[in-house]
Amino acid sequence: MDNRIQLVAIIGAAGLLLFVLELVRRRRLLERYALLWLLSALVLLGLAAWRDGLERLANAVGIAYPPNALFFVAFAFVLILLLHFSAAVSRLADQSKVLAQRVALLEERLDEAERRAREADASTDEGAPLAREDVIEPVGARRASDR
Amino acid sequence: MTSVRPDSSHLAVVPAYNEAATVGDVVRRIHADAPEWDVVVVDDGSTDATAEIAHAAGARVLRLPFNLGIGGAVQAGFVFALEQGYDYVAQVDGDGQHDPAELDKLIAHMQANPSLDVVCGSRFIRDNGHRYPAPISRRTGIHIFAFLLSRFVRQPISDPTSGFRLYNRRAIRLFAKDYPHDYPEVEAILMLHHHRLSMEEIPVRMFARGGGVSSISSGKSAYYMIKVLLALFVGLFRRRPLPEPGGGAPVAAETGI
Predict the structure, then answer these.
(1) What SS3 class is residue B167?
(2) ipTM of predicted complex
(3) Which of A80, A130, B43, B95 is most deeply packed, by most CB within 10 A?
(4) Which of A94, A99, A101 would best serve as a mutation to test chain B binding (most B beta carbons within 10 A)?
């Protein structure tokens, strides 16, 4: 194997490793998502540095030019990471759906409670309690304005 | 007019996304034709005055902060019904294609058959049980779903995309917890089967849409087909949930063609 490609691979993998660690240190990346990145950077660095191991891996799967085995491993990690993030996004979408539904339900309940409180106020002010059916709601009014 | 009647246990869930042209009429028609039904409109992040018009027409309104799609909107209605203790939920679409006068038929059929958990209004069966053809434009898709579903659940399904359905408390509990996403009606039938809930179709009449734009445009229908087919086949391999304690098991548990 050419020494130059090994140097490029080592620098690239080491740079990735340091960058991921720095992101975790600055709390820009949750540990949960950093683990897979760290694992892929470490494996790539190991294969780039350990020539014999890379050549054996290339022989085992029938890759003629060993550095291609490195690309192959890197590509496999990229696929796994992408799938991992698709799953994470799906979970977030599910959670945000539940949140949106809860917000809508709570907002409606708050609205209803405020309306009842207003009616109760109105009835105590005037002495005679109003039947619910007699309260005329402002047509099309939004909650912020009719408070 | 107020829609809040604590003595009533019927809730009409009206999902509406930018249906300002029709949603007011839908609410008023339910009040007029099915007065024992409470109405909750689920405003699915509309950008027009859907929520205000529905509120002015006398419905309670759930305003979703952003668009969830029909599945998320209807599920919000199920959660609402569960928390408010309703015994029956019916979905009535906000575009005016469902006829609220037919709600009585759904209720009557369920009360006549207490073992049923869901009664589904179908456009494609007649009173004598015979089918009649769907409009040619949408026939293919609906009939493929109908064919597949009928085999999966081993029961004739003529109108798998109909949203005009009546649910009892068991079905409300199930769907408040888990309801399919984008085009939920087809998958929901498979879910009912997996959870050993029973459903039956009865003939209803439906109107042409009163206004607005259908969520299934021609461009999207291919995507719709593929997505629902994927969901159906994946659903076949999903782990079977345990039946609820005390629930009957009127439908065979296994699935397959």
Answers:
(1) strand
(2) 0.78
(3) B43
(4) A101
